[in-house]
Amino acid sequence: MLLDRFRVESHGEPVPLCGSAQRLLAFVGLRQEVPRCVVARTLWPEASEAHARGSLRTALWKLPCRARELVRCTQDSLALADGVGVDAGALARSALDVVRGCEALQAEPLLVRLRDQGDLLPDWDDDWVVLEREWLHRLRLHALDTLSDRFARQGLPALALEAALASIRIEPLREDPHRSVVSTHLAEGNLIEALRHYEAFRQLLRAELGIEPSLQFTRMISLERRCTAPRP
Predict the structure, then answer these.
(1) Given this model, what pLDDT does residue 69 score?
(2) DSSP letter at 3?
(3) How far apart are the first and last CA of the chain?
(4) How far apart are alpha carbons 209 and 113 in whole angstroms?
(5) Using an 8 Å Cβ cutoff, are 55 and 24 in contact?
(6) Fewer Cβ in 10 A, N or C end of the chain?
(7) How far apart are CA 162 and CA 195, in angstroms?
(8) Quick one: CA dihedral 85, 88, 90, 96, positive or negative?
(9) Contact at 8 Å (CB) between 211 and 203?
């Protein structure tokens, strides 16, 4: 497990690992298969090439027996053993399926998976972890936005709102999911809810960034107000 925290299990039992072993398995788990030279250079970036390769050999040698079963080693590369699952990889595949518009997707289970998973190794600050975390974070948000749009087109407003609100909970200052919430409310005729959400977002942007919503978003609300205003 790499989401929320690092955890390795073998045959249902947790496998305790030191820091260097955790980073080794996490890196291989994220990449699935990777050349030894890349592993050594990434995990020991300040060491010479020879020293980094030696550190990699030592880390592999120190792996507990149950952890060694999870890695397939060759002279040139490291890879996960067959049947080893990584939650971050499963989340990335689900998000990519949504973004690519794969047919016959079970959208509701995908929504739950995207909504409920945590961030990748949030307490680690290694450069390679930060990059992977940001990539997965953006992909997850894009997938939630895509699901929200898809549910709206299918006439499923409750699910469209849930996907958009999940995206907002992850990153509140992005405008796209707020527009999805407002447009879904408007499509259902809930003008008051749409206006309330728009104003809350507007106040949030002012307080946090000192800016206003985009002109496109503002025009959406202004047009709806003119269309629904009582005639004299």
Answers:
(1) 84
(2) B
(3) 63
(4) 31
(5) no
(6) C
(7) 18
(8) negative
(9) no
> Using CB atoms within 10 A of its CB, is residue 48 exposed (0-12), middle (13-18) or buried (19+)?
exposed
Predicted confidence at residue 224, as pLDDT, reads 60
* Spatial contact of 173 and 208, defined as CB atoms under 8 Å apart: yes
Token pair 């609300």 is at which residue? 221
In terms of DSSP bridges, do strands 77-80 and 33-35 run parallel, antiparallel, or are they unpaired?
antiparallel
Q: Which two tokens stand for residue 199?
A: 């104003």
For tokens 């072993």, name the residue. 21
Classified as helix, coil or strand, 120 is strand
- Average pLDDT in the chain: 88
CB 2, CB 30: distance < 8 Å: yes
* Pairing verdict, β 71-73 and 33-35: unpaired
In whole angstroms, give the CA distance from residue 149 to residue 137: 19
Look at residue 49 and give its three-state secondary structure. Answer: helix
Residue 230 has pLDDT above 70, yes or no: no
**Spatial contact of 211 and 221, defined as CB atoms under 8 Å apart:** no
DSSP state of 103: T
Angle between helices 157-170 and 175-187 (to 10 degrees): 160
pLDDT at 10 over 90: no
Cβ–Cβ under 8 Å, residues 156 and 148 = no
User: How many Å is the Cα radius of gyration of the chain?
Assistant: 23
Instruction: Report the amino acid identity of residue 115.
Output: R
Nearest in space to 80 (alpha carbons), one of 49, 43, 90: 90
pLDDT tens readout for residues 62-73? 888 888 888 899
* DSSP characters over 130-142: HHHHHHHHHHHHH
